[in-house]
Amino acid sequence: MKEDKIQVRGELALIPLIFVNSFAVVLMLYSGSGISAISSVPYGFNQVIPVISLGTWTYIFQGLLVAILFILKKRVYLPYLLSFVVGFFFGIAVDLHQSWIEVLPRGLAWRILYFCLSYLLICFGIALANRCKMPIVPTDLFPREFSQITGIPYSRVKIIFDVSCLAVTVFMTGTFLGHIKGLGVGTVLAAFTMGKVIGWIGSWMDRYVVFVSCMEDFSFHRNKHRRRVSLEKI
């Protein structure tokens, strides 16, 4: 029952999500196991054209994802525009974390710990982002919205999306650098398993927490206005 669950404001989750998820992306790369799939495309472009930072390539890629969602929706959709704004700050946070991450120790045991921690943080962050009812970064938004638009299960869409990102990165770095860069065992493992783990964590969240937000209120009043206008036309 909804009454038995803890009610959390989605606004309170948004800022921590941006900084924690961006940290997890940078930490996974620092672990040496490879970049996360959702950031592999910006990373590939950053390696080929390093004059543009990883954070900047991140929100360029996210802008492309938002444009694709506009095409699928066949209209400009305000929450998607807000998602791009969130993605812009996510890109800035990625560059911020990259500026200090080198201070962390880098032994083998530490690298294993970094990968496990970053993997769990990314999974938890995406599951939380999918439920906080606030604009989320486009790389998290795209699989969720594509699943809703097409009716394909989220876990399947997430895996296909991640693997497609890896394929683009392999092509980019292999073609222009002469070798594959940024991908490791951890990258492949994450790409093929994250969708399922996110689903498990999300199901666990759904049992205990319900999110409310100003965006939910906005959607309710907008839909109410549309129904009233439709009735007036009858």
UniProtKB/TrEMBL annotation:
Regions crossing the membrane: 12-31, 51-72, 77-96, 108-129, 159-177, 183-201
Coiled coil, from the record: none
Alphabetical list of Pfam families matching this protein: DUF6198 (PF19700)
Keywords, alphabetical: Membrane, Transmembrane, Transmembrane helix
InterPro entries: YczE/YyaS-like
Entry annotated with the keyword Phosphoprotein: no
Protein name: YitT family protein
Lineage summary: Bacteria, Bacillati, Bacillota, Clostridia, Lachnospirales
